[in-house]
Amino acid sequence: MPRPPKKRPISITVYEKRDSNGEPTGTWEGWLPLVDADGHPVKYPNGRRNRAHIEAQSKEECEDKVRQKEDEMAEAIMRKKANVQPAVKGMRVHAWLKYWLYQIKEHEVAYNTFRDLRLTIELLVIPNLVDCQCEDLKSSAIEDMLKAIRHQNPGTTDKPNRAYRHLSMALKAGAARPKETGLWHNPIVAVKLPQHTSPEPVPFSVDQTKRVLTAARDWPRNRARWICAWAFGMRPGEALGLKDTDFWLIYHSDGSRVPEDLWHTVDLDTVLGVLSVNENIYRRKWQHGCDDPHACGAKYHQYACPREGRVHDRYHRDGCPKPTRFCAPGCTLHEARCPQGHGGLAADGTPMPAGQVRKAPKSAAGIRKLLLPREPTAELLAHLRQKDRERKEAEELWIGSGALFATKRGGIINESDDSAEFAEILKAAGMESKRAYDGRHGAATMLLLKKVERRYVMDFMGWSTEAMLKRYQHIIDEMRREVGDAIGELLFDVPAVPTPPVAPKPLAIAPQVDLATDHATDDLPSNVTVLANWRRKAV
Predict the structure, then answer these.
(1) Nearest Cα to 230, choosing from 253, 208, 213?
(2) Contact 145, 160 (CB under 8 A)
(3) Which is nearest to 231 in space by CA: 384, 423, 385, 371?
(4) 280 neighbors 237 (Cβ within 8 angstroms)
(5) Which is nearest to 116 in space by CA: 146, 159, 61?
(6) Which residues pair with 271 in a beta bridge?
(7) What angle do CA 85, 88, 91 make, to 5 degrees?
(8) Is residue 408 a contact partner of residue 397, using CB atoms and an 8 Å limit?
(9) Which of 218, 354, 485, 515 is the most exposed place for a label (fewest CB within 10 A)?
(10) Half-sphere exposure (CA, 13 Å, Cβ side) for 507?
(11) Where would I find the H helices in 437-518?
């Protein structure tokens, strides 16, 4: 049997403690002088030396405690010289990621931003990152995580890039509170950000934009939604979030507001329409508000057919029911069916609504006013007249959400229905399928083509930083042609070839209807829009 290693000698003497009669008590003790991180003795205010009293039941145990205390003081001196913080028992990596996600970021960022963070952390980072103490996390573990994500998602560079960026945010926050997490260094600093290449959106040209607007004029309902939002670069959520009170008329001469009871007599050449963008529509996911989510959705769980034998053949002779998706054991889904369901808890603990919810725009610059020329103003007036007619037809079925662009019953339009309608408009215009949001890129590019001042563009689009100009304004063929014509005219004396004007389709406004007498008024002048003196319900 090998000899046990010899222990390091200690700097003090430990002795057996005795009582007042001089008899041994069976307890060993020692007094160890303390030193600070600079190696200087620790003293009381009166100048006496501060010593640590160490006590144990045996001599060997007491000496081990003295050695442990000496090692701690020596390590503190070494860390101070190397500028390394003292070690503490911090959190594990997975525990810190969940704490950062649900206790810090959930109430700091917008709902959609938090949803993106949650999906990235829970589905990409935590399953592929080793769970260890935060101070033991190494850069090689982060590189292994990125490698695993690339292997699981071949052909895409977005997920490794997002996993790196969101993990970097969490580790940076952990390094800012080292006494809690134990993360005295940030290991992700030594790992390079994975490159992400995304295709640049190709905005519509001027001719293509006119074709889309022409197709929108022939649309039976809510055509003003596409004419205004597409031409003025509104976000889809902003367009769906407009209310009836966000549109009004002002006189062109002095900018004063036109009374609503005079809208049916105004001359469109003397007024301007105003659209005020104040809110945005987004969707919050339902969450259970009950104590037992699994039991709450018991009525809606779908599992594989458990029957067998003759009873099974009797009831399922034509085959077992096949749901689109089976529920997992202990399923806690079906949140929308929960009687106490909500859209999450606010910072003060109050439940928030779910489904389609209104909120302020992304920044203060998003709250803006748009001045509309004659044609969009006429389309909005005709839209309000048609909407008032639908309200009278719906009678008590009218929802009255107050939305400017609403369903036939006055409700807020669903985002998927809105995107499907835009796809139909593009199909009618003979265009390839694009997102409705791409109209924002097109509007910003049109302003660049018209050489509008940068500050005006930022106010018009609702941006707070000039970096958005580079992101949304693109170089299109019309601009390249201007550059080529300028070089040809300057160096080669080649006159620029003028572009033939394209005659726009005449404004298509349905026959005017005077709701008071319920008869058409088509014999009025073309520059006068007749509108009923309606009274819109506000909910």
Answers:
(1) 213
(2) no
(3) 371
(4) yes
(5) 159
(6) 251
(7) 120
(8) no
(9) 218
(10) 18
(11) 438-449, 454-461, 467-472, 477-491
> Does 365 have pLDDT greater than 60?
yes
Q: Rounded distance, CA 259 to CA 344, Å?
A: 42
Give the containing element (helix H, strand E) for 50. Answer: none
Of 215, 363, 345, residue with least CA distance to 286:
345
Count the alpha carbons within 13 Å of 115 in the hemisphere toward its beta carbon: 10
Amino acid at position 284, single letter: R
Backbone angles phi, psi at 97, to 5 degrees: -60, -40
| Count of other CB atoms within 10 angstroms of residue 180 | 14
SS3 266: coil
Instruction: Report the Cα–Cα distance between both ends of the chain, in Å, rounded.
Output: 89
Q: Which helix (H) or strand (E) holds 328?
A: none
| Beta bridge partner(s), residue 281 | 358
Query: DSSP secondary structure string, 171-232?
Result: HHHHHT-HHHH---S-GGGGSPPPP---PPP----HHHHHHHHHHHHT-SS-HHHHHHHHHH
Token pair 């669903």 is found at: 414
Cα atoms found within 13 Å of the Cα of residue 22, Cβ hemisphere only:
0
User: What pLDDT score was predicted for residue 539?
Assistant: 30
In angstroms, the CA 28 to CA 12 distance is 13
pLDDT tens by residue, 261-288: 888 888 888 999 999 999 999 899 888 9
Q: Are 257 and 212 in contact (CB under 8 A)?
A: no
Residue-wise pLDDT tens digits, 175-229: 998 888 888 889 999 999 999 887 778 888 888 888 888 888 888 889 999 888 8
- Helices 438-449 and 206-217: crossing angle, nearest 10°? 130
Could you tell me the two tokens for 165?
A: 């960026």
Beta strand 247-251 pairing with 51-56: unpaired
* Predicted confidence (pLDDT) per residue in 151-183, tens digit: 999 988 899 999 999 999 999 999 998 888 888
* Eight-class DSSP state of 515: T
Tokens of 447: 């302003």
The Cα 514–Cα 509 span in angstroms is 14
